[in-house]
Amino acid sequence: MMARQTGIFYLTCTLIIVTSGLFFGFDCVYLAQHVTPAIPAIGGALFIFVMATLFRTSFSDPGVIPRASLDEAAELERQMEVPNAGSPGTYRPPPRTKEVVIKGQVVKLKYCFTCKLFRPPRASHCSLCDNCVDRFDHHCPWVGNCVGKRNYRYFYLFILSLSVHCIYIFACVLTNLILRAQQDNFLTAMKESPASVIEAIVCFFSVWSIVGLAGFHSYLVASELTTNEDIKGSFTARRGADSFNPYSKGSIFKNCSQVLCGPVPPSLLDRRGYVVPDSSQAHHTGNMGTNTAPDLPPPAVVTTADEMLPAGENVKKREMISYQTPDGTINNKLPPLNGTSSPPTCGGRKNHIWDMTLNQLNYMGRSNNHAAIHGTNPGSVYPQPYRHSDYLSGTSVLPAVKGNKSTMSRGCSTDF
């Protein structure tokens, strides 16, 4: 069981295998002849143990806590809902923590909104693996997996054996170069065995971090602490005068025995089960919020008979322009363009009136009225300048036609 980011894990395997291969191919041959044949045997045993603990750490379940099902999450939310006494019928947000007492020490259980459960003591949610891990220590990119309750001992044995293996190779490389230098000089020895120089450089820069990490985790094992607890200072003196580690067995020997020799709890994952899609996350799955719901058809537009143009023209009322005459009546029709009386053809696209501003619509209506009064082409005759104050006041801006009082335009308004 590995995380999604496995690039550094492959780098770890490459460094160990290549360095060990150079050691067995060049240094072990010379040392087995001039020192003892036990050197390659010890190196081979260390290499096998290092790779075995590495793979066991990387491909084992660190203690993942399964997420709550829909029924479990609903029941938990129902139990957390507490009516607000001040306002009947309303509910306050559910509490995010619970408190339990372990050996007289109060420990808070935090609610995980991703897994929909209260995490057990010492558990935490890994952002890289996106799972809650029991006795979460840390996420190690070098092994490509979280380090938790079920694989911590293998991780500790891995870094401990790797530090010994690194020191062993570095010591053997120096021995090889010193024995070769006794015959001539040190530069000649490096020319005769260039692989030893590469091994020495890799081991020299790696041994400090590996040995330091092994020493730090030795302290954690002896104290029965995790990296997460040590960094946060969960049981330090600043938490309170009575703060102590309730998980410690009381002695270094018992703590080491508990971590390294205690029983490994069974995995809570059903590796033979089938993945059932969660209907509650049908619309949002993953970290990116991908919508997996099927595309629904667009909502039907209910159109009544009075919203359609007369004479069976397939144009809705909200696509038309409402003209108000001086007598107060409103005419719903499409304005003619270039003196034509038929509505323009949109060719299945959105009506062109949607792209016009209010000034353009008023200008078009006034131009048509100007053409009807004077018998001119609105495309070639410009009416008098538009005044917005006249439009707001509702007064006519065109001269009246004798004998006809209903041809005056008071502007236009949109009804979308």
UniProtKB/TrEMBL annotation:
Membrane association type: Multi-pass membrane protein
Enzyme Commission number(s) of this protein: 2.3.1.225
Residue span, Palmitoyltransferase DHHC domain: 108-232
Gene Ontology molecular function terms on file: protein-cysteine S-palmitoyltransferase activity
GO cellular component: endoplasmic reticulum; Golgi apparatus
GO terms, biological process: protein targeting to membrane
Biased composition, class Polar residues, residue ranges: 326-344
Name of the featured protein: Palmitoyltransferase
Lineage: Eukaryota, Metazoa, Spiralia, Lophotrochozoa, Mollusca
